[in-house]
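### Sample
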Amino acid sequence: MIISKLKDIKNEGVNVCFIQGNRQVSNKNVKSKTTSIKEYGILVPLMYVKGTKAVEDGCSLMTSKGDAIPSEEADKYIVIVDGQHRYTAAIENGVSDEEIYLFESYAKASTKELLAEANVEVERWKGEDYIAGATLAKPEDELLQFANSLSLRGFPISTISLILCWDKHKFTSKKLSKLMKGETVNIEYKLERANAFLDAMSNFTDKFVAKNYAINVVIDLSSEMGYKPVCEALSKISRATIQRIEGMTGEENVKNFLKDAINKELGKQKFNHLKP
């Protein structure tokens, strides 16, 4: 393994960049790294691959500030695949290029595989990180694109799994990690049903929907009559009732009140259907 100083790399006309869609730089993590770097410097060298390799592996490049880098300029960059929080903390705190050490990955793996493995091993990912990583690895996948859109709205992976799969154990971090590594994973889901639920919840706040109270109630009621009438009833709940529901405390209280509100609308549907 050859360890280089950032100064020497820059002297060759090469700059540092990140991969679009990789785990977002967290201010909390940067702050944590800053404390360590101020006291000890960068103890572990940053791992990188050449920009050309990353592009050949299907990745898009961006500067550390988030600006897109044209693929034809990939030869002017190295890409941090492990250590972007340490790098960001070092740059923000004025650490000299003489004191930032890097090494080129020696693993015979694609850039996306390196991201999946190195980042997970070094620092435990959250659900949204797995979703972003899997979407990066398979950008054409409709399930991942849909899940990523919900993740960006603040929905945890357990709620996303319930919405997409009607089961919190089907869309998991473990399965997403396998997808990132190129393995085949079967995840049963229904976008039509997911959209029906989200449309019915359009008058609720994302903060409330993310708690998964509503999706669990809908799944429970749908077991008897199917999701379509339940979602239709849900969509007809008044704004005043919604405000009351979102202002309540206690999971069971909220779920019971919401279930009663849905059943009330279902009763109206049944009555209207029976009217001559």
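The CA atoms of residues 5 and 115 lie 22 Å apart. This sample (ParB/Srx family N-terminal domain-containing protein) is used throughout the tutorial notebook.
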